[in-house]
Amino acid sequence: MQILLGPQNPVPNLRQAVETINVDGPIVVISAGWRDSEGEIDELQEIVGQPLEDLMLYQRAEQVFTNEPVLHDLQRKRQDNLTELQRLYRIRLTPTIAAARKLMRTKAEPELLRLEQRAAITQLRALDSHHLRRIHGIHQNFNQRRAELEIPMAQVQRDEVRRLVEKAGLVLITGGHVAVLLNRIRLFGLDQLLAQKPVIAWSAGAMAMTERIVLFHHAAPQGKRDAELLDTGLGIVRRRVILPHASTRLDWRNRRRMALFSRRFSPAVCCTLDNGSMIHLDNDRVIASSGSSVVMRTGRKRALTTK
Amino acid sequence: MNPQIENLYREGAPSAGMIGEFIQNNRFPLVEPGHVTFIFQGQADEVNLRRWISGLSTAQSMQALEGTDLWALRMELPDKSRFEYKFEVVREGRRDLVLDKLNKVTAQDPFGANSVCQGFGYTRPAWTLHDPETRSGTLTGFQMYSKAFESQRDIQVYLPARFRRSRSYPLLVVHDGADYLHYADFKTVLDNLIHRLEIPAMIVAMTQSPDRLVEYTGDQRHAKFIGEELLQELNAKFPLIDRNRARGLMGASLGGVASLHTARQYPNRFGQLFLQSGSFAFSDLGKHQKGPIFDPVVRFVNEYRKNPFALAENIYMSCGIYESLIYENRSLLPVLQAQGMQVHFEEARDAHNWENWRDRLRNGLSWLFPGPLWMVYE
Lengths: 307, 378
Description:
The complex is a heterodimer of chains A (307) and B (378). With 307 residues, chain A is α/β, with parallel strands linked by helices. Helices cover 49% and strands 19% of the residues of chain A. Chain A folds into two domains: 2-67 and 154-303, Class I glutamine amidotransferase (GATase) domain (Rossmann fold, 3-Layer(aba) Sandwich); 69-150. Chain A has helices at 14-19, 42-48, 57-67, 69-105, 110-148, 152-167, 178-187, 191-195, 204-208, 246-249, 255-265; strands at 2-5, 27-30, 52-54, 170-173, 176-177, 199-202, 212-215, 228-232, 240-244, 269-273, 278-282, 285-290, 293-295, 301-303. In chain A, strands 3-2-4-6-1-11-12 form a seven-stranded mixed sheet. Chain A has a two-stranded antiparallel ribbon with strand order 7-8. Chain A has a two-stranded parallel ribbon with strand order 9-10. In chain A, a hairpin with a 2-residue loop joins strand 11 (278-282) and strand 12 (285-290). With 378 residues, chain B is of the alpha/beta class. Chain B has eleven helices and 19 strands. In chain B, a hairpin with a 2-residue loop joins strand 7 (82-91) and strand 8. The N and C termini of chain B lie far apart (52 Å). Chains A and B meet through strand 5 and helix 7 of A and helix 11 and strand 19 of B. Strand 5 of chain A pairs antiparallel with strand 19 (376-377) of chain B, so a sheet runs across the interface.
């Protein structure tokens, strides 16, 4: 069971979400996405009205890296490779998406155009899939090399964190830096374990729960930028792309752009999460929702419902 | 005529009380869509508006308003424009350049202060102003001996908030750093953009030349100092990302020339170049008209135009359309683009001054060094 929420500012709806769950055990928090501010959960505790324990994944990892330079180097190498690969992906993505966008707005004989548009979107999807495969390769390589290292301190930390999660009756995953959050969850091997626990996650936390992490910001300081795939997510929430801050980060006036966005990630459903939004899922089925919309093939949005 | 002045004269020549009210109830200069009206109050034989806009004469005479001690000049000004000016007041053959006393907005530069005209729709960007929510970085500094110059040099260094030695940071080297700090609110801008995640936490090294008219005009010693000596020193002192792409070089006016020249001497050592209103003087035929200071600049720019090559991965150029250098900058743009570098060129309705350079910092820095905003969903 998972509940995905929008940003908790300015009006939090975390408490309402917690109240819908019969919490059997302690509540633990993963706030690694906050990086240096990890663990500053007083406000959350006040909202929830119950004691919370932060797993401190970010700081634990920093500590391990400080003491285990070999692991740190391995991790840094992985990050460098991922950054470089993302740059290379972007070089191909920019013209591919520009071509698809041009085809979405050009005028031509409908039957001819339809097939060309479809082919352009297929190309875009193929590029996205290729990128995810390459990323998977980098993670695999890291995991293999890491398994060869015997690092007792890292193992102790992993075991401790896993024990805390196993005992927990509910896991809260905050927003923040989505790549850091995902990285720390994986580093502590929590992917599978989280799938068995009730989880409430918001913003970046909600993105991390899905199969694919889509980065987007149509109003970035340097103007329009095309959405890109960052990585595979934990895969606990399937067939959905989660879009926090959708009302401010997406260019809803540009219907064609939004239509391409929706079709590119189809068959996954693009769901918006703004402040006040909530999607309650059970076995990938929406059992309750409020304030969330689905981006349709036309580029318009409609309310996400339980049907 | 400007509507406020028209209103002042609606019943003939205004009384002293009406003039007082007019002065008190308006903000000066009087701004309306597409136009601006300057007002000077005082006794004079002649008043001129002196402003530094390329393409227009530098002085424009103001008209005495009948029956008053007011002088006025209405001129066309595209919306969101900004430029600096002074009044030239002539009394008994003596000419004085004075600030506009009715306008509180002034800009400072190393030569003093000017009044600032902000056209209709211009607002100072919020990210240039102190934000109490923003965590503040720190300024530190060191001295180093430059073999190239055979003298000591002072370097100021900006360290981002929550700086940690265990991390690696991108580096930006800035010419005329003290001027950027003083006249372009550079530290506030860095603090704000880092806080807003629009640029990454970075280390910024700021140099200040004791003789920029020589050192910034295509001087080999300067290139060696920046491209070798300073970089070595910074690498030894600070945790920097050891990649060309994570290294930037920046400057305005002659500082832009010094940046481009250093990049030419050390191609791709700095992956990112930020060139603001670069004084890229050149000549296609015959002798240039810019004066002897520009001889080495013209030599260097002519040579580069003749044998251009890629200097960096990305270049962000900005220039005001009210400065004569717009011609040089527009001319250099296709030369740079043809070398396969990513070049972004921003033209602003502004002139050759620090506030223009300040207002372009967000676009330039976030384009060259995109921050983690893209990755953060709170």
